[in-house]
Each structure stands twice: as structure tokens, then as C-alpha cells.
Write a structure and sequence with these properties.
- The structure holds 2 protein chains of 2 kinds.
- Chain A is α/β, with parallel strands linked by helices.
- Chain A is built from 9 helices and 10 strands.
- In chain A, the strands form 2 sheets. In chain A, strands 6-7-8-3-9-10 form a 6-stranded mixed sheet, sandwiched between helices. Chain A has a 4-stranded antiparallel sheet with strand order 2-1-4-5, covered by helices on one side.
- In chain A, helix 3 runs parallel beside helix 5, helix 4 packs across helix 5 and helix 5 packs parallel to helix 6.
- Chain A is globular, with a radius of gyration of 19 Å.
- Chain B is α/β, with parallel strands linked by helices.
- Chain B has 12 helices and 12 strands.
- In chain B, the strands form 2 sheets. An 8-stranded mixed sheet of chain B has the order 6-7-8-3-9-10-12-11, with helices on both faces.
- Classes of the chains: A alpha/beta, B alpha/beta.
- At the A-B interface, helix 6, helix 7, helix 8 and helix 9 of A face helix 8 and helix 9 of B.
Chain lengths: ~260, ~325
């Protein structure tokens, strides 16, 4: 890490509330606190895992970090830049630095677009790259994720779940981001395919110096991939620190419970 | 000696795919006694769900089936649909993966639990509702009396799966087939739901066929294990022994590729080269041959017969004893 350079990603007291639909026409409006005062620092090269059960706020956190939603309070700073303070075009430019991979490789790829179109889309949008350059770069990233140039003109339905997730990773990779937010990237995959994709993600980290914000309910996966971990329960951080230390000596009951559920007996 | 609860022999299923017929199941044989619990594990496309569908008479249109499925000695293959309807939900209970889609969003939970009671047992509405309440209490849905009139969307995922279990148990089936019953649930809830299923199976002396891709789930829930790959039962035996021995090269490779707590940060997982072939591309011999590190010419000539690894422990691998000796942990 260069001296004086700001950390890759800093969130400060990030909060997000959602309004629930009224139960009756004139009833009170209730809100749910999806995320309350979440602060963390992610340094380049040190993957951060976000763990917690469904409803703990993991995916809300991902959307806030990706600037797909605005926080009700608090801030997200990427390379020192407050994302909420950027205007639309500056935000669009900043987006080439952080990309996302979603859980469901069946839902996250447009079935009517070819692999080339899907993978190159961020380039077209963010850089206004010409068609030739788009195709060239798409071929390069496909190669990096272990797919072939001949796959460029195929459609998503021609691929297995694991291959689709490779396509989604290629799409995230094409802008050469420093950060990839991966929301349960291997949960929908079979065990042996999961191993291939996890290995690939780690290889890409070594090769392209990308850092992952890795959201997962699977503690074993986080243990493998992440240097740091943050445990969320009902939108509140109950524990955070070095993964090895937190998993070896969990301080919070909730972390202990998650670990117990993950231990084979 | 009376016939076992469920006896499957040489079950073969051929499905019509876009690229022609494919053998989805080849010579699947197993028995399931009352009170016995059998787990079926394997990855997508290995045939575990097709096995479940065959046992419920729900195979897709155009499927060709041969072999035998007997429930207490009575042959089920070839039964007319009307008779299957009398078995499903009554003698064979089913729990599916996704409780949100298995339940009808437009009917109350109470109505859906009462439905099989009225349909199969002809109970009057009030009596069926009373029994539905008992069932809901039995599967430990909190505030069961209030939940009876709730709609599925008003319940949590774990509660919905408990409702699905209550429906499956309503008519006191002899055989419970659970296809990925906890996959959509959080790990802590998974455990509670599995424990509930185990408890009910023991209490009612049912036979349980538990289908899962999750080795940890199966390990704690069943006494017998079957590992499927490419439409065959690659390995079958007592759960503990299968886990200790990992006799089939596929079982071994599958176990090695799991991420486990405590692996060094950045470690690469063992992977199985290649990918699961599509149904129509399955080789004639051992379906794992193209990905197996111990393959020899003979593996490709014919489907390997079940070979005894130990008592009641079989593997369809002609090199099974070699694999055992080469065990490297």
C-alpha cells in the first residue's frame, strides 16, 4: 500500500431504512432499519467478507457500496471520493473502479444478448469504447475466466451455471476495477463448480490486483477468501476483525451461533 | 419375511431432450425399510431429482421407464394416474425445496394443510381444520392457532417449510421424500428443520428419502447414503462408512472440493477436471470415466457393476479396491 493513499473503500455510519407498505389505508407507516451505522475500512488487497443470515442487511450494504441506492445517512468513500457527492456523469466514470457479481447466474444475464454484448456493455457505457475494442477486450477477459473466444457469439442459455458465473465475472472484470462486490457469487453453484469459481476468483485477484467485498452466508468460503470479516445481524455490525481471529475466538453470541451451524458434527 | 417399505430395482429412465433421448437413470437399485433414513447426494443433473419424480409417478411426459418400484411389494410402475393420486399425499409425502412456490399464495395455511385430509380421508371441514391445527402445533409453528388463517407470504421461510412438512405429514404417509428441504433456508434454520424431520420420521416410523447437494446436511440426518453421478448410484452404504472410506473416485473428488472452515487463506480447492456431461453425451461405460484420475480402458467398455467395498457398502467402480489402498486422506 502506498503511503498516504486513501484506503480503497471506507464506509462511515452507513444507514438505510425502508418504508413498509401500509397495512391499512390510513394506518401508520412503519419502517424497517435494514442497516444501522455500519462503518468499515477495506484496504486494497485485503478482501472483506460480510456474513450474516437472510435479512441481516448484507445485500443492502452491497447496493449502497455500489451506489445503486443512496444511504439515509452516512457515507461511502471509494478512493477517498464520497460517492453520494458525485453528479451523475462523475459517478458513471467512477463506476469503472467498482463492479458487481450477483448470486444468480441465471437471473443476472440478459437472455437476449450475446456473451460479447453482455460482457462488453460496461465498456460501451463507461468508456464509449468502439465495437472493435469492445470485442477485443471481451475476448481477453473471457480468456482470463477460462472461456473461449468462440463463446462470444453464444447466448446465456447455452452455458451451465458455473460458466454463466464466469461470464458475470468477465463482465465485472472488463473495466479493470479495483473492487468487485460479489454478492453470494457461488451459493447457487454445485460443490465442484463452486471450487472452480472460487479458485478462479483468487487467481484473478493475483493477476489483476482486484480486491473483493465478498458477501456470503457460507463461513467456510469467507474463511478461505477473506482477510477481514464483518458480521451483520439485523443491520447492525456485531463483530468485525481479521477473519482468522474472529472465527477462532468469536466474541459475540451471534457469531458463535453462525460458526456452530457451519461446523460439521 | 414381509416386503420392505420401498424396493427399487434396476430403475432406468430415458428422457427426451432437445438433442435426442438421454439416459437420466441407469440401473438404480435400493431398498428403504420403515424407520430407515436414506440420503441421496450429488450435483445438478446427477439424477437425484429424477429418482424422486419417478418414485412419485411425476416423470415428465415422454419419459421411458423400466425396472421396478415396489411399495410394500406392490408394483408402482405402470399404475394408472388415478391410483397414483391415491398414493401421493397419502402414502407418499413430499417436501420440496422452495416453500414459497410449493405453497399456494392465494389460500390460507390452514386450508392447505386441511386439503389432503379432506381429499384423501374425506374428513369434514371442521374436523380437518382441527387436525390442521394439531399438525401446525406439531411442526412447532409458533402461535399455531393464529397462523392457521395466515397466508404463506406472512410467514418466514423456516415457518413456510414447516407448513410444507405439516402438509406432507397430514395423512400419515409411510414414505417421506424430501427434495432439498433446507436449501433455501439459513444455516441455523436448516438445522432446526432437519432435526424436526428426523424427529417426525422416528416418531412415526416412516421411511425417509432425503435428497440434497449439501454433504453436511445429509451427514447429520441419515443413516444410509447414496452418491449419484451421471444417472447411476456411484456409491452406497452406511453414511459414516461412506464418509470414512470415500470408495468411489467421484465421492472422493467431491469431498476434496468442499471449502472447509480452517483452510489457509488463499488456498486453492481441489477441483474435478471437466464438467458434468449432458445426458445425451453420457459415455456408455462409467459416466465419470472422462473426469476420473484413475480411469483405465476397461472403465469405458461397460457400466461398472456394484462392487462390495465392505458389508452393505457398494461402489460402482472396477478399481474400487485400488482407490481404497491409494487413500491419502
Amino acid at each position: 500500500m502506498a503511503d498516504g493513499a486513501p484506503p480503497l473503500l471506507v464506509t462511515e455510519r452507513l444507514s438505510r431504512h425502508y418504508r413498509l407498505p401500509r397495512e391499512t389505508v390510513l394506518g401508520a407507516v412503519h419502517t424497517v432499519r435494514a442497516l444501522s451505522d455500519v462503518s468499515f475500512t477495506l484496504h486494497a488487497g485485503r478482501n472483506l467478507g460480510i456474513v450474516g443470515e437472510s435479512g441481516s442487511g448484507k445485500s443492502t450494504l452491497a447496493r449502497l457500496v455500489m451506489a445503486l441506492e443512496r444511504p439515509d445517512s452516512g457515507s461511502v468513500r471509494f478512493n477517498g471520493q464520497d460517492l453520494a457527492a458525485l453528479d451523475a456523469s462523475a459517478l458513471r466514470r467512477a463506476r469503472s473502479g467498482f463492479q458487481m457479481v450477483f448470486q444468480d447466474p441465471y437471473g443476472s444475464l440478459d437472455p437476449r444478448r450475446t456473451v460479447a454484448q453482455t460482457v462488453a456493455e460496461p465498456l460501451a457505457v463507461l468508456h464509449g469504447a468502439g465495437r472493435g475494442e469492445q470485442r477485443e477486450r471481451a475476448r481477453d477477459v473471457l480468456d482470463a475466466v477460462g472461456l473461449r473466444a468462440s463463446d462470444l457469439d453464444k447466448y446465456p442459455h447455452e452455458f451451465s451455471g458455473g460458466q454463466r458465473q464466469r461470464i458475470a465475472i468477465a463482465r465485472a472484470l472488463i473495466t479493470r476495477p479495483q473492487l468487485i462486490v460479489a454478492d453470494e457469487p457461488v451459493s447457487a453453484l454445485d460443490v465442484s463448480v463452486q471450487a472452480q469459481v472460487l479458485n478462479l476468483m483468487q487467481d484473478l485477484q493475483d493477476r489483476y490486483r482486484v480486491t473483493y467485498l465478498f458477501i456470503s452466508h457460507d463461513l467456510a468460503v469467507v474463511d478461505l477468501v477473506c482477510d477481514e470479516v464483518l458480521v451483520l445481524q439485523h443491520g447492525v455490525v456485531v463483530e468485525q476483525g481479521a477473519t482468522r481471529a474472529v472465527f477462532a475466538r468469536p466474541q459475540h453470541d451471534y457469531t458463535r451461533m453462525l460458526l456452530a451451524a457451519a461446523q460439521p458434527d | 419375511m414381509s416386503a420392505p417399505l420401498l424396493s427399487v430395482a434396476d430403475l432406468c429412465v430415458t428422457l427426451q431432450t432437445a438433442r435426442g433421448p438421454g439416459q437420466a437413470l441407469r440401473n438404480v437399485s435400493f431398498e428403504l425399510a420403515r424407520g430407515e433414513t436414506v440420503g441421496l447426494i450429488g450435483e445438478s443433473g446427477c439424477g437425484k431429482s429424477i429418482t424422486a419424480l419417478a418414485l412419485m409417478g411425476l416423470l415428465p411426459e415422454g419419459a421411458r421407464v423400466s425396472g421396478s418400484i415396489r411399495l410394500e411389494g406392490r408394483e408402482l410402475l405402470g399404475l394408472p394416474e388415478r391410483e397414483w393420486c391415491g398414493l401421493r399425499g397419502r402414502r407418499i409425502g413430499m417436501v420440496f425445496q422452495e416453500p414459497m412456490t410449493a405453497l399456494n399464495p392465494l389460500h390460507t395455511v390452514g386450508h392447505q394443510i386441511a386439503e389432503p385430509l379432506r381429499l384423501h380421508l374425506g374428513l369434514p371441514v371442521a374436523e380437518a381444520r382441527r387436525r390442521a391445527l394439531q399438525l401446525l402445533e406439531r411442526v412447532r409453528v409458533p402461535q399455531a392457532a393464529r397462523r392457521l388463517d395466515a397466508y404463506p407470504h406472512q410467514l418466514s421461510g423456516g415457518q413456510r417449510q414447516r407448513v410444507v412438512i405439516a402438509i406432507a405429514l397430514a395423512c400419515g404417509p409411510d414414505l417421506l421424500i424430501a427434495d432439498e428441504p433446507t436449501t433455501a433456508l439459513d444455516a441455523t434454520v436448516q438445522r432446526e428443520v432437519l432435526d424436526l424431520i428426523r424427529e417426525l420420521v422416528a416418531e412415526r416410523g416412516m421411511g425417509l428419502l432425503l435428497i440434497s447437494h449439501n454433504l453436511a446436511v445429509v451427514a447429520r440426518a441419515v443413516r444410509q447414503l447414496m452418491v449419484m453421478y451421471g444417472g447411476i448410484v456411484a456409491e452406497a452404504g452406511p453414511t459414516q462408512r461412506v464418509f470414512e472410506r470415500l470408495a468411489h473416485p467421484y465421492t472422493r473428488a467431491l469431498f476434496k472440493s468442499r471449502p472447509r472452515l480452517g483452510l489457509p487463506r488463499g488456498a486453492r480447492l481441489a477441483t474435478i477436471p471437466g464438467r458434468v456431461p449432458e445426458l445425451v453425451d453420457l459415455p456408455g461405460g462409467c459416466p465419470f470415466a472422462d473426469r476420473c484420475e484413475r480411469v483405465i480402458g476397461e472403465c469405458r467398455t461397460a457400466l461398472p457393476p456394484p462392487t462390495a467395498v465392505a458389508v452393505a457398502h457398494l461402489a460402482r467402480c472396477i478399481r474400487v479396491h485400488g482407490v481404497g489402498e491409494a487413500r491419502d486422506g
